[in-house]
Design brief:
2 helices; mainly beta; 4-stranded antiparallel β-sheet; 15 strands; Methylamine Dehydrogenase, Chain H
Length: 184
């Protein structure tokens, strides 16, 4: 099968590759070149390994699939709101406890193990989301839209506001900002 995309795990242990017309994503052992898994996934556009190499997310025409790399079993599946209309976009926080996925004009923050939604982020100026990315400490999320704007979400501030009304998501709190740590 000719491949249209490939991604390599951060530890360079695996390579996942496919093409959008394929019915699976192939995973290869980088040391041997042997195929170790064929993950059923229809019309995949993109795949992303988590920074801790525990997860592989495939973003396809109709859904996102989260795969546990210890077993290559699917941990959860998320149907896309507007299948095929918009290419999928995926990013992980550096600690790999949270994934961000584009879903039409919003971004969903998810637990990769269960698919449980921590939050849904929607802009005041809606546009189809084309890319998402976390900063290194996972406290900010950049979202690019088809309207050529970049939205920056301060997740630390969002969590503080949610905590004030007992709605914070169930993850450890973010570390104090660097300026605050230096003053302590």
């Amino acid at each position: 099968m000719p491949f249209e995309f490939a991604t390599i795990s951060d530890d360079a242990k695996w390579c996942a590759a496919s093409q959008w017309k394929a019915k699976s994503v192939r995973v290869f052992d980088m040391a041997t070149g042997n195929r170790i898994a064929d993950l059923p996934a229809d019309k995949v556009y993109v795949a992303v390994f988590s920074p801790d190499n525990q997860w592989l997310v495939t973003g396809g025409y109709e859904e996102y699939c989260f795969w546990n790399t210890a077993s290559w079993q699917m941990s959860c599946r998320l149907r896309r709101a507007r299948p095929g209309y918009i290419r999928p976009a995926i990013s992980f926080a550096l600690d790999s406890r949270m994934a961000a996925v584009a879903d039409a004009q919003k971004v969903l923050l998810l637990d990769p193990a269960t698919g449980r939604q921590f939050a849904s982020l929607e802009s005041r100026e809606p546009a189809n989301v084309s890319a998402v990315g976390f900063n290194p400490d996972g406290t900010r999320l950049a979202v690019c839209g088809w309207n050529h704007l970049i939205q920056l979400w301060d997740l630390r501030l969002i969590r503080q506001e949610l905590a004030a009304i007992n709605l914070d998501w169930e993850l450890p709190p973010y570390p104090a900002p660097a300026a605050q740590q230096n003053s302590n």
